[in-house]
């Protein structure tokens, strides 16, 4: 098998295993229900009649993107730790697959398994809005909004959720992750220096701002790290998406390098 075939094989196995986990779907159902029921009169469900499909579905994606990655980060946090706890790490290392490929496959499979419930939630929201508003473009914008707003954040979270617990333990990671999530996404930068509203904010407020034509949350708000808060535009959206994916891959690069050196010296 070549590297690509090995990567796809590991990714498929990881996806099938993760997508069968009840906790993944229970977390999605619970969080989606909470979001839908508690969005208030300013949520996308109450957006004025005749609003463009892109604005309505961007609103849904922002709502899901604020809360849903928390559940997925919790679920993925014990993935590699569990391999060590169950003693399967040595078995996996004996396979004719390099540690980098194995780790990348686990990342892709875990990301795909966590993205699937998010995509389905957006399609359900798009179906509801299609029936409610009679706009057939809602479903198409549901998919696009998911790809621009939710998926980069999930890619960002998946990398840290897989690797960080190997260093600080899964329970501690979950506590720190929740604290970071609210500090780095919803804390006003004027109140306390935070990453809220920057290109590195994984809830997707830059794509939302670009799609609806106005500032969402703290995008574009001057403050700490103001150079990471350019005006929302197509270019800044692309930069934000690329940065989130690359930063999410950093833990994998570091871990893959460490695992490769450990295998060579073993």
How would you sum up this structure, described in words?
- By secondary structure, the protein is mainly α.
- The chain has helices at 3-19, 22-38, 53-76, 79-85, 89-93, 99-133, 137-163, 165-168, 170-186, 205-212, 234-265.
- Helix content is 73%, strand content 0%.
- The longest helix has 35 residues, at 99-133.
- The mean pLDDT is 83.
- The chain crosses the membrane at residues 56-77, 107-126, 138-159, 166-183, 235-259.
- Keywords: Membrane, Transmembrane, Transmembrane helix.
- It comes from Plantactinospora alkalitolerans.
- This is ABC transporter permease.
What brief labels describe this structure?
266 residues, 11 helices, 73% helix, globular, membrane, ABC transporter permease, transmembrane helix, transmembrane
Shape: globular
Percent helix, as a range, is over 70%
Approximate strand percentage? under 5%
* Count of discrete structural domains: 1
DSSP, total strands: 0
Report the average pLDDT across residues: 83
Give me the Rg, rounded: 19 Å
Work out the helix count.
Answer: 11
Structural class: mainly alpha
Order of helices and strands: HHHHHHHHHHH
- What oligomeric state is this? single chain
Give unreliable regions as ranges: none
Q: Give the terminus-to-terminus CA distance.
A: 24 Å
Taking the sheet with the most strands, its summary is: none
Organism: Plantactinospora alkalitolerans
Keywords: Membrane, Transmembrane, Transmembrane helix
Protein name: ABC transporter permease
Summarize the structure.
The chain is mainly alpha-helical. It is built from eleven helices and no strands.
């Amino acid at each position: 098998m070549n590297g690509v075939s090995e990567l796809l094989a590991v990714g498929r196995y990881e996806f099938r295993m993760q997508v069968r986990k009840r906790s993944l779907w229970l977390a999605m159902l619970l969080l989606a229900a909470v979001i839908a029921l508690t969005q208030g009169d300013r949520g996308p469900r109450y957006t004025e009649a005749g609003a463009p499909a892109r604005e309505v579905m961007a609103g849904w994606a922002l709502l899901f993107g604020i809360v849903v990655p928390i559940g997925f980060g919790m679920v993925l946090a014990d993935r590699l730790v569990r391999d060590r706890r169950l003693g399967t790490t040595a078995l996996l290392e004996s396979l004719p697959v390099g540690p980098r490929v194995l780790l990348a496959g686990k990342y892709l499979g875990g990301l795909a398994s966590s993205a699937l419930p998010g995509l389905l939630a957006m399609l359900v929201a798009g179906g509801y809005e299609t029936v409610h508003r009679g706009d057939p473009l809602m479903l198409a914008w549901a998919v696009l909004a998911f790809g621009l707003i939710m998926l980069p954040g999930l890619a960002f979270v998946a990398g840290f959720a897989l690797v960080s617990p190997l260093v600080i333990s899964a329970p501690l990671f979950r506590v720190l992750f929740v604290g970071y999530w609210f500090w780095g996404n919803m804390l006003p930068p004027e109140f306390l220096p935070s990453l809220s509203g920057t290109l590195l904010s994984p809830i997707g407020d830059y794509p939302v701002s670009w799609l609806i034509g106005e500032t969402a949350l703290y995008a574009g708000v001057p403050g700490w790290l103001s150079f990471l808060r350019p005006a929302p535009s197509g270019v800044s959206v692309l930069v934000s998406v690329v940065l989130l994916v690359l930063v999410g891959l950093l833990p994998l690069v570091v871990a893959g390098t460490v695992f490769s050196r450990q295998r060579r010296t073993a």
